[in-house]
Amino acid sequence: MHRPNVWAMTDSAPLRALVADDEEPALAELVYLLSRDERIGEIRTASNGPDALKILQAADLDVVFCDIKMPGLDGIDLARVLSKFASRPQIVFVTAYDEHAVAAFDLDATDYVMKPVRAERLAEAVRRVVSAGAPSALTPQDDSDDEVIPVELAGVTRFVHRSTVRYVEAQGDYARLHTGQNSHLVRVPLSTLEERWHDAGFTRIHRSTLVALAHVDEMRVDGGRCAVRVGDDWLPVSRRHTRELRDLLVRSTSLRG
Asked: Does the keyword Cytoplasm apply (predicted)?
């Protein structure tokens, strides 16, 4: 029987959760137990690591209840990727294997729950998540940390470092990341990236474009129209953003000098 990817409760609760497990019975049982906990609100599901990453890119979630051994990208690797996110959900590993506990807590996992899962043990894990605080209250990573963005290409999940992104174009509810050689479509609105990457030197130059100031090679104004060169690409700058961009470029040049 087909089960929808998003589960909702009528009684709203603060925690938005993702459950990731490649075993259908285990996934269904965990969703059932969590749905009975009044501290849990929306529950989303994924049957593998790459699908979990897609969901985490598209939505701000508070906690991931994650199996360790999954196809494509295991739970430990998923946690490593999430640790590079500017704002990441808490991780609770739910697994039948105890040998990964040390690695899990090295990755700042909130809890490590052994299968078969008992309701009271899972309730304790939720309590720990609540006590630790929602991710929105967590201190963001230092700006020197380079965020990693998971992208999918031909069914393979790859990881793009934010520092390699030269500019970003809006494409509906998606954004296209342009690096030196390639471009990658991710399901994240441009407005979200603008807010998340502002402190990393990205600024909006057009309603549909963000640019990394560090990758701007030239700025030109011709006939009242402004454009910047990023590598081999010329990008238009709207009138409302021209003055602010000029000031930012002058400031960043002086700081680098």
From this structure: no
Residues whose CB is less than 8 angstroms from the CB of residue 167 and which lie 6 or more positions away in sequence, other chains included: 178, 209, 210, 211, 212, 215, 230, 233, 235
**113: alpha, beta or left? (left if phi > 0; alpha if psi -120 to 50):** beta
What crossing angle do the helices spanning 49-58 and 75-82 adopt, rounded to 10°?
30
Residues 6+ apart with CB under 8 A from 217: 228, 229, 230, 231
User: E strand or H helix at 168, and its extent?
Assistant: strand 167-171
Angle at 238 between CA 236 and CA 242, to 5 degrees: 100
- Whole-angstrom distance, CA of residue 198 vs CA of residue 18: 27
Q: Phi/psi of residue 4, each to 5°?
A: -60, 155
| 33 pLDDT above the threshold of 70 | yes
For 119, other C-beta atoms within 10 Å of its C-beta total 12
Tokens standing for 123? Answer: 């309730």
156 band by pLDDT with thresholds 50, 70 and 90: low
Rounded to whole angstroms, the Cα distance separating 31 from 180 reads: 42
CA distances from 223 to 134, 155, 243, 248 (A): 50, 46, 15, 22
